[in-house]
């Protein structure tokens, strides 16, 4: 069994030294192959495909040295993606100054611009009004992608 917490703990310093953050790790099996997916981004978002490719190579070499895996696997390093759910302060910081959709624990839905991420709450701009919302009051949140 693959211990994702150990992998995250091992690769996080390498990723952070290069100015990026680890947003998540997923291990899956598909069509007789094992896949290790590592989701990384810049603190403010916007990692490039080239940066992912470089990190993929560096993480692959690092994991090979650690000899964590007993079987072969495919490593994929990518951004969290546009539909990544916003759950942690790290997630919210990544989309600061962008539009988000919130569903509060009360069931109320808000669409707003995220203007500030604090220690325990976020500040959003809804039309002309600024609201402060404790992160514990948020049931779901995602970035709104405008094309």
Q: Can you walk me through this structure?
A:
This protein is of the alpha+beta class. The chain has two domains: 4-78, GMP Synthetase, Chain A, domain 3, CATH 3.30.300; 89-143, SH3 type barrels (Roll). Helices cover 26% and strands 39% of the residues. The chain has three helices and eight strands; from the N terminus they run H-E-E-H-E-H-E-E-E-E-E. The longest helix has 18 residues, at 49-66.
Concise description?
By secondary structure, the protein is of the alpha+beta class. It has three helices and eight strands, in the order αββαβαβββββ.
CATH topology (fold) name of the largest domain:
GMP Synthetase, Chain A, domain 3
Tally of discrete structural domains = 2
Query: What's the main sheet like?
Result: 5 strands, antiparallel
Helix content: 25-40%
Shape: elongated
Strand order of the largest sheet: 7-6-5-4-8
Summed up, the helix count is 3
Mean pLDDT equals 92
Radius of gyration: 17 Å
Second-tier CATH architecture of the largest domain: 2-Layer Sandwich
What is the CATH homology-level superfamily of the largest domain? RimP-like superfamily, N-terminal
What's the structural blueprint in terms of helices and strands?
Layout (H helix, E strand, L loop, with lengths): L3 H14 L3 E10 L2 E9 L7 H18 L7 E5 L10 H6 L4 E6 L4 E9 L3 E6 L2 E6 L3 E6 L4
Parallel strand pairs: 2-3
Antiparallel strand pairs: 1-2, 4-5, 4-8, 5-6, 6-7
Helix pairs in contact: 1-2
């Amino acid at each position: 069994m693959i211990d994702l917490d150990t992998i995250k703990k091992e690769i996080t310093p390498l990723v952070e030294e290069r100015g990026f953050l680890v947003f998540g790790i997923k291990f899956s099996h598909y069509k007789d192959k094992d896949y290790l997916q590592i989701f990384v981004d810049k603190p403010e978002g916007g990692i490039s495909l080239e940066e992912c490719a470089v990190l993929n190579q560096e993480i692959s070499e690092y994991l090979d040295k650690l000899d964590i895996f007993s079987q072969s696997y495919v490593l994929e390093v990518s951004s969290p993606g546009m539909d990544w759910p916003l759950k942690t302060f790290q997630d919210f910081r990544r989309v600061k100054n962008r539009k988000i959709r919130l569903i509060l624990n009360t069931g109320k839905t808000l669409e707003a611009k995220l203007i500030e991420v604090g220690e325990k709450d976020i500040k959003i701009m809804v039309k002309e009004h600024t609201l402060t919302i404790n992160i514990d009051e948020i049931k779901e949140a995602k970035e709104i992608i405008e094309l």
